[in-house]
C-alpha cells in the first residue's frame, strides 16, 4: 500500500507542476510514444531543468504604493532633513514628509535635494553561476548605486525609465549585502532638467517605482522585440548576453490558455551580434484591437547545440498592424481609425508618481467607460502594469519620451529612448511613439526608434507638423488655413479642448467631433486631460494642492471624482449613435442607429429597455416604477453603417413617462443609457396639478402693496415696481422676491391691475419695453400661475445674448437643496448638453468650485429640460412647475475659481438667484473663449417674435 501512495505522489506532483508551467514544457512532453509513468518522469525531469532556467525576480523594495518596504533614508535639505530615519520604497520622498514640494518650472535649480538610501539583503547559495542584475523601474532623477561600497555603474540620468546594473561580481557569496543609493533631485545634466523638470506637472524626488534583482543564467535572453502583423506574419528579434559559441533560439506561440498555435520555430545564434531574428506565420490569428484585445504569448528558449535549455522567457503580444498612410489616414488592421483619446499623467494625491496596478485598472476602466479608445502617455512612459492593462482591456496608446517643452541632448536622449523602447516595445496597445512634447523634440533621435522597434511604428512630434502628421494643440474650431482641419496631413491634435475647471473637455467636444468626422484626414484627437493632478501637502496640514490653475485640468478629480464632462464625453463618443433628442409623437419602437465602431457589428451588442413611471413632486424618494422591460440582441449593422433597432413594446406607451435604453458591449460594459421623456412638461405636470380643492380668494391694496389672500397663504406685490415682494404660507415667510426680472433686456414699469375671472384672481403687471406680458393667476386650489412674454429683439446691435429668461431672488443661506424632474444630476452649459439622464433627482446644496473642491455633482448652475422643482430651504419648501415647453432651471451663480486668470471658465450668469431660462451660455477652455470652439459656443440669437413662458407655483404643497 505504501508503494502505491509513493507512486501516486510521483505522478501527481509533476501534473501539478505541469499545470503551472505547461507553456515551458508542453512541446517537450507531448509525445504519445512514451508510456504514462515514463511520460511524467520525463516531463518532471525536463520541467525541473526548464524551471531552473527561467528568470527569477526578487524584490528589494515593495511592489507599489500600497506594498512597500522600509529602507534607511536621509534627505539633505527640506523637511526632516539631515538625520537618518526610514522611508517607504517605492515612494516620492515629498509624499513621505521629506524635502520640499516643487511644481515644474518653478523649481530653483540652484537648490538641489539629495536622498541617501541604504538597504541590506542576504546572499543566496542559488545565485552561484548566475548573472545578477539590479533593476530600477524609475528614480527621480540622477541615481548612483553602490553594492557593498563599490559603484555599480555610471550614474543614471533620467527619471521615468527602467535601468539596470550587472552586480554579479559585487555581491558577497554569503552574508548580507549593502545597497546604497544616492538620488539627486536635480540632474547634473542640464538637458535632463530642461526636459523633465521645467514642466507643467509636479516634480518629485526619490525611488518611485520598484527595485528588484533579476536573476538569470550567465548566458541568457536579455530582451525581445516582436512584430506580429495582422496577416499572421510574426518576426521577433531576440537579444542574448553571455558566452555560447554554438546554439539556437527556439520559440513556440500559444494563446493565453496555453493552447499551441502552430509548430515551434527556431534560428541559430549569432554570437557576434547577440541578436537573433525568428520568423513565423500564423494562419488567421485573432487580431488585437481596443474592441477585441486578443492576445497571445510566445515562449522563447535559448538552447545549446545539444538542445539543452539554457534560458527561457515568456512574452505576451498581439497580432495587429498599425500604419500611417500619408495623405489618407491612420490605420490599424487595415481599418481607418479616429482616436477618441485623453492625456494621462501617472499621479495619485497621496503618493505622487508612485502608482499601483489597482490604480492602473481603475484609470483604464474609467477611460473605456467614457467610450474612449486611446490614451496618450503625457509626458513620460508609464508603469509597465498600466500598459499591460491597456493591452488586456484594449486602448490605443501613444507612448512618449519626456521633453515637456525642452529636449534631451542627443547623448542622454539616446540612452533614455532605448530604455523606453526596450521596456515597452512588445505592447500591442502602443501604436505611436511621441518623441517629446511641444518643442521638446530632438530630431537626431528619430531614427533610433526603428533600431529597437521592428514594427517601425510611426514617430510623431506633438504640437508640430512632422512626417505626414499634424498634431497641433489647442487650435480653434475649423482653424488654420492650410493645416490641421484644413491641411494635407493626417491630423490628430494630441491635446485639444484644455479642460481647466468645468470648461473644455465635454464643452465644445460635439462641435469638434462632428467637424473631425467630416474631414477625411482626421484621425481624432486627445483631450487634456484625464484627472486633476492634486497633491496632498503634508507640509500644509493635508491640503489638496492643485497649484492654482496649473493642475486642475481633469475630467476627473484627483481621486477620480467624476465631473459632468465625464458623461458628456461618454455620450458623444458612444460608438452607437441615436440621433433623436426627442422621440416622434407616434413613436412605435423603431429607433435609427449609426454604428461608429471600428470592428464591431451591432449584432454583438446587447440592448435593454425600460418603460419608467416617475415619482410625483410630493414623494420623498426618487424611486421609479418599471412598467415594462426587455432585453434584445442588436441588429446586423456593420461598422460605419446605419440601421434600425425595434423595441418590442407589450403595453400602451401612454402610461410611460420615460423610455430608457441601455447598450452593452460584448464584454458587458455599458456603452450608454439614453433616456427620452414621452410627455411634454405640460402633459407630465397635469397629473400633479389637477385638484378639486377650492378656497375663497381675497385681495387688498395698501401701503404700496397688493396682497392676495387664499386659505393660509398670502402673496404680496410691490405696487411701485410690480415685483413679487413676499410670500407667507401657514405663518412662515418664503423669501422668494424681486421677480420676475428679465435676464437681458430693459423694460419700464407702468402699473398693475387686478380683476376676477371666474373663480380665479388675475393680476396684470404692465410695462413698456422688452416685457410684453406679465400676468399672475391665483386659482382657488392655491396654485399661482405666472404667464409671461418678452421680446429683446434690437436690445443690442447684433441680437446676440448670453442667456434669455427671468430671475427671482432667494437667499442662498436658506437653501438646503432641490428635488427636481429634468435631466441630471449634472449641470449643463450651452456647449455641453449631452450626458445626463431624464428623471427625478435629489440634490443637496453645495458650493463646489470645479477643480478646487470635489463634491460632485455641483449644485449651482444650469439644469436642462426642467419640469418641476421642489425648492428645499430652511423656511418652507415650495414647488415650481414648468407650464411651457423647453426651459432651463438656474440655481445660483458658481463662484469664480480662485486660480482663474481669465473669464473663459467663469462665464457671466444672470442676476438674481433662481432663474427660468429659455437659453443659457457656453463655457470656454483654459486658453480660449467659448465662441472660439464651434457653433454651440456662440451667443444666443433672437428673432422678432416674442418669447413666452409659463410657471406654476405651489407655496403650500403636501410633501412627504
From TrEMBL:
The keyword Hydrolase applies. One of its GO terms (molecular function) is hydrolase activity. It catalyses: Hydrolysis of terminal non-reducing beta-D-galactose residues in beta-D-galactosides. Residues 219-320 form the Glycoside hydrolase family 2 immunoglobulin-like beta-sandwich domain. Keywords: Calcium, Glycosidase, Hydrolase. Residues 327-464 form the Glycoside hydrolase family 2 catalytic domain. Its EC number is 3.2.1.23. Residues 771-876 form the Beta galactosidase small chain/ domain. Residues 85-217 form the Glycosyl hydrolases family 2 sugar binding domain. Monomer. This is beta-galactosidase.
Amino acid at each position: 500500500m505504501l508503494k502505491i501512495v509513493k507512486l501516486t505522489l510521483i505522478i501527481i506532483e509533476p501534473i501539478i507542476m505541469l499545470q503551472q508551467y505547461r507553456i515551458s514544457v508542453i512541446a517537450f512532453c507531448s509525445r504519445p510514444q512514451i508510456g504514462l509513468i515514463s511520460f511524467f518522469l520525463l516531463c518532471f525531469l525536463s520541467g525541473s531543468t526548464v524551471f531552473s532556467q527561467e528568470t527569477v525576480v526578487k524584490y528589494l523594495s515593495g511592489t507599489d504604493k500600497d506594498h512597500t518596504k522600509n529602507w534607511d533614508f536621509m534627505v539633505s535639505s527640506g523637511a526632516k532633513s539631515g538625520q537618518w530615519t526610514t522611508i517607504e520604497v517605492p515612494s516620492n520622498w515629498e509624499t513621505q514628509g521629506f524635502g520640499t514640494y516643487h511644481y515644474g518650472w518653478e523649481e530653483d535649480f540652484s537648490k538641489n535635494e539629495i536622498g541617501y538610501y541604504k538597504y541590506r539583503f542576504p546572499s543566496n547559495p542559488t545565485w552561484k553561476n548566475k548573472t545578477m542584475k539590479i533593476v530600477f523601474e524609475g528614480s527621480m532623477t540622477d541615481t548612483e548605486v553602490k553594492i557593498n561600497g563599490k559603484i555599480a555603474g555610471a550614474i543614471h540620468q533620467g527619471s521615468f525609465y527602467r535601468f539596470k546594473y550587472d552586480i554579479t561580481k559585487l555581491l558577497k557569496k554569503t552574508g548580507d549585502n549593502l545597497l546604497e543609493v544616492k538620488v539627486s533631485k536635480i540632474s547634473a545634466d542640464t538637458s535632463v532638467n530642461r526636459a523633465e523638470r521645467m514642466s507643467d506637472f509636479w516634480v518629485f524626488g526619490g525611488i518611485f517605482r520598484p527595485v528588484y534583482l533579476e536573476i538569470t543564467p550567465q548566458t541568457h535572453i536579455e530582451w525581445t522585440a516582436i512584430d506580429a502583423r495582422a496577416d499572421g506574419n510574426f518576426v521577433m528579434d531576440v537579444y542574448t548576453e553571455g558566452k555560447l559559441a554554438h546554439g539556437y533560439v527556439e520559440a513556440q506561440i500559444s494563446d493565453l490558455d496555453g493552447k499551441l498555435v502552430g509548430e515551434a520555430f527556431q534560428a541559430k545564434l549569432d554570437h557576434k551580434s547577440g541578436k537573433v531574428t525568428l520568423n513565423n506565420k500564423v494562419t488567421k490569428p485573432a487580431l488585437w484591437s481596443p474592441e477585441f484585445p486578443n492576445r497571445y504569448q510566445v515562449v522563447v528558449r535559448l538552447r545549446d547545440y545539444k538542445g539543452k535549455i539554457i534560458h527561457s522567457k515568456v512574452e505576451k503580444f498581439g497580432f495587429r498592424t498599425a500604419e500611417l498612410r500619408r495623405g489618407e489616414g491612420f490605420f490599424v488592421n487595415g481599418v481607418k481609425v479616429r482616436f477618441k483619446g485623453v492625456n494621462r499623467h501617472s499621479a495619485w494625491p497621496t503618493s505622487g508618481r508612485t502608482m499601483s496596478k489597482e490604480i492602473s485598472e481603475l484609470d483604464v476602466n474609467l477611460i473605456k467607460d467614457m467610450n474612449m479608445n486611446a490614451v496618450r502617455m503625457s509626458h513620460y512612459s508609464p508603469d509597465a502594469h498600466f500598459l499591460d492593462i491597456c493591452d488586456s482591456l484594449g486602448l490605443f496608446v501613444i507612448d512618449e519620451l519626456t521633453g515637456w517643452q525642452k529636449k534631451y541632448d542627443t547623448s542622454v536622449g539616446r540612452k533614455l529612448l532605448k530604455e523606453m523602447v526596450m521596456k515597452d516595445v512588445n505592447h500591442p496597445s502602443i501604436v505611436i511613439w511621441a518623441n517629446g512634447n511641444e518643442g521638446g523634440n530632438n530630431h537626431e533621435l528619430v531614427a533610433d526608434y526603428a533600431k529597437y522597434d521592428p514594427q517601425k511604428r510611426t514617430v510623431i512630434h506633438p504640437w508640430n507638423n512632422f512626417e505626414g502628421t499634424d498634431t497641433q494643440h489647442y487650435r480653434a474650431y475649423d482653424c488654420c488655413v492650410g493645416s490641421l482641419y484644413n491641411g494635407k496631413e493626417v491630423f490628430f491634435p494630441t491635446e485639444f479642448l484644455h479642460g481647466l475647471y468645468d470648461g473644455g473637455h465635454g464643452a465644445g467636444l460635439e462641435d469638434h467631433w462632428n467637424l473631425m468626422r467630416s474631414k477625411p484626414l482626421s484621425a481624432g484627437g486627445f483631450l487634456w486631460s484625464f484627472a486633476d493632478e492634486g497633491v496632498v501637502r503634508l507640509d500644509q496640514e493635508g491640503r489638496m494642492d492643485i497649484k492654482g490653475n496649473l493642475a486642475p485640468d481633469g475630467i476627473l478629480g484627483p481621486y477620480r471624482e467624476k465631473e459632468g464632462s465625464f458623461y458628456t464625453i461618454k455620450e458623444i463618443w458612444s460608438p452607437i449613435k441615436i440621433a433623436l433628442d426627442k422621440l416622434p409623437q407616434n413613436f412605435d419602437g423603431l429607433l435609427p442607429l449609426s454604428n461608429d465602431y471600428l470592428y464591431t457589428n451591432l449584432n454583438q451588442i446587447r440592448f435593454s429597455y425600460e418603460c419608467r413611471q416617475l415619482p410625483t413632486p410630493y414623494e420623498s424618494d426618487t424611486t421609479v416604477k418599471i412598467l415594462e422591460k426587455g432585453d434584445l440582441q442588436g441588429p446586423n449593422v456593420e461598422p460605419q453603417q446605419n440601421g434600425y433597432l425595434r423595441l418590442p413594446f407589450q403595453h400602451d406607451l401612454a402610461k410611460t413617462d420615460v423610455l430608457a435604453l441601455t447598450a452593452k458591449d460584448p464584454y458587458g460594459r455599458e456603452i450608454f443609457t439614453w433616456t427620452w421623456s414621452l410627455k411634454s412638461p405640460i402633459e407630465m405636470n397635469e397629473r400633479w396639478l389637477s385638484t378639486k380643492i377650492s378656497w375663497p380668494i381675497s385681495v387688498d391694496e395698501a401701503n404700496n402693496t397688493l396682497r392676495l389672500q387664499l386659505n393660509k397663504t398670502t402673496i404680496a406685490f410691490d405696487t411701485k415696481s410690480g415685483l413679487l415682494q413676499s410670500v407667507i404660507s401657514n405663518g412662515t415667510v418664503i423669501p422668494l422676491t424681486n421677480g420676475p426680472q428679465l435676464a437681458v433686456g430693459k423694460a419700464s414699469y407702468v402699473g398693475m391691475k387686478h380683476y376676477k375671472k371666474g373663480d380665479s384672481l388675475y393680476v396684470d403687471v404692465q410695462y413698456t419695453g422688452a416685457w410684453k406680458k406679465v400676468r399672475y393667476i391665483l386659482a382657488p386650489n392655491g396654485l399661482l400661475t405666472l404667464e409671461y412674454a418678452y421680446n429683446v429683439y434690437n436690445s443690442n446691435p447684433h441680437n446676440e445674448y448670453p442667456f434669455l429668461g427671468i430671475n427671482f431672488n432667494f437667499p442662498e443661506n436658506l437653501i438646503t437643496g432641490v428635488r427636481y424632474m429634468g435631466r441630471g444630476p449634472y449641470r449643463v452649459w450651452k456647449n455641453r448638453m449631452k450626458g445626463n439622464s431624464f428623471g427625478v433627482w435629489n440634490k443637496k446644496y453645495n458650493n463646489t468650485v470645479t477643480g478646487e473642491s470635489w463634491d460632485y455633482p455641483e449644485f449651482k448652475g444650469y439644469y436642462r429640460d426642467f419640469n418641476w422643482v421642489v425648492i428645499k430651504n430652511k423656511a418652507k419648501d415650495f414647488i415650481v412647475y414648468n407650464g411651457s415647453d423647453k426651459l432651463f432651471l438656474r440655481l445660483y451663480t458658481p463662484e469664480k475659481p480662485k486660480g482663474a486668470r481669465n473669464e473663459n471658465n467663469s462665464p457671466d450668469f444672470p442676476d438674481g438667484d433662481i432663474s427660468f431660462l429659455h437659453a443659457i451660455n457656453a463655457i470656454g477652455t483654459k486658453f480660449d473663449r467659448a465662441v472660439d470652439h464651434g457653433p454651440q459656443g456662440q451667443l444666443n440669437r433672437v428673432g422678432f417674435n416674442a418669447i413666452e413662458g409659463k410657471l406654476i407655483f405651489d407655496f403650500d404643497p403636501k410633501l412627504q
